[in-house]
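Components:
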Amino acid sequence: MRSVTRDQEIRELAEGARDVRAGLGPDVDLTRFAEAIEQGRVDSMDDLERQLKEAALRVGIDASGHGRSGSYVQVDRSAVYEAVQTSYEDRIEVMSVGHALELYDGLPEHWWRLVSPGKDKYTAYAALHETEGYFMRVRAGERIEDPIQSCLLTSENNVNQNVHNIVIVEDGAEAHIITGCTIHPDVEEGIHVGISEFYIGKGAKLTFTMIHNWSQRFDVRPRSAISVAEDGVFVNNYIMLEPVKSLQTFPVAHLEGARSRAIFNSIIYGLEDSRIDLGSDTILEGEGSRSEAVTRAISADRSTIHSRGRLTARSDTAKAHLDCRGILFSDEAVQYAVPELVSDGAPRAELSHEAAISPIAEDEIHYIMARGVPKDEAISMITRGFVDIDIPGLPEPLRRSIDEAISATAAEAL
Amino acid sequence: MEDVIPLLEIEDLSVEVEERQVLFSVNLAIGAGETHVLLGPNGSGKTTLLNTIMGLPAYRVTSGRILFGGTDITPMPIDERAKLGIGMAFQRPPAVRGVKLRQLIHVAGDGGGMEERLSGLVRNLDLDRLMDRDVNMGFSGGETKRSEMAQLLAQAPAITLFDEPESGVDLDNIAVVGEAMNALLKPGTVAERKGAGLIVTHTGHILEYVNADVGHVLLNGKLACQGNPLDLLEEIGRSGYQKCVECALCDQ
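Structure:
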């Protein structure tokens, strides 16, 4: 049974934030969007509509489920498919969050514990219009070799898809989750609000790869937070290569345990009129905690990118580094690199950053051309190298689409 | 007797860099398989000549032309010159973040049968540790030169332009670089034919490792004289560049 008091508390916090604008990114009028509608369940991912399946493939989802330990698919507001491969049945749980809330008495230790429903109007909306999302748990000590995949799809035009995800990786466990968020090709306008709370146990490791693929009239507001216990590791890979109307996200990692670590890798491609405000905020509280945030941002067309990173050290033995690099391929694009280092009562903590926005150096292009490589290919080679931040376990079709997207933009920029 | 077309022919070449004229009516011909040496004080225009032959866009040809195998390559972009058979060992090559040495060697060799050749190259030039690192990123002077040589050996050009191959390199590395240069300039190792070369050297040390056929002295942007490279070096060592070009060694 869910606690009535707790639900009331969540509701009150959300009510108080109904009209609170986010501190970053353009404001979105949520009243413009209808609530997402119910969709029917499918027996297998193959039963999804062809265009949805193709959209899912482009964000790294394998409809056959081969090579995946578990799968979750949500269309609009409904969980339409969940599965765990037989060999993983006792090792992981993958289900809709609605089901998990019923099964585990409202997840009192995990539901709205890291992200506050009162943070802004988007969290408030998600709390007041609760729909679905995924619940994933990796059991203590289990090393899950095959990634778990989830796909959040929007199939209707002009709706608000709000999801709330809970991920728990218990002590000593290890897993890789690939999440693809995308829309049906007929969807032009809409908003995706995603709340995600991650709990990484002692000595546990989660690699979380998120691929976003939206459209030029779609707004996106993820709100994520992560708690990492002693010796735990959280690796976050974020990739967005298609236009979006606006996206703003600033996940917060709390490195609470001694020697806990967080690594954020982001590849962002600003296309058309996209307004992207993306970063990560790591709070290093645990003794000897470590963090690294690497962002590669490419701006084309008339896009605007804010590439942020904040490191806050509260432990004297903490150490963290930000590496934020950008390239502009268009004289109508704007890019901001905003690194922020905060030492909060930790005089011996070591925080550093490297931020640079610069073109591909002509002498590098000429050097490669001197080996017989045409100019456009030389630029592609350098640009591909620029975003090659070694994301392990990235599905091959996705790796190929990153290469293709970069080659196309680099060639256009000539 | 039929006239033999030189491999590389420079006719009346004048070049500007940032609106300042650096080369004045330079004439030079290098036959297939010949190795020439270009001597001259700092700022005389040696690197400018090499970069202009390679086609780097900052070097503007204001008069004259460059012929390769009889074809006028003056308007050609860098990559087309490289494809025709011109290679260059840069004095201070840039570091290229994100591009691995292995990749660059591979594209220089145009992919064909590279795997086998690659292993030999890597072994001979002691590049094992560097193959999966970003090109020239944090390389020492010797490592940078060895990386240049590996790329050129893969490329196997008909003529290689060497810009100060011994600069910033210790004695052990000069020997390795010299060996690689000989592989580029002698027949049978890289290609069937004998490769040609144009070596810019400030100190002449590299001539202890590589045999050259003809030496030229470039002074104030003009080719002042030519002769036996070792004789020229000796004369320059004794009397300096100015005296050298005035002396009777020229055009012997």
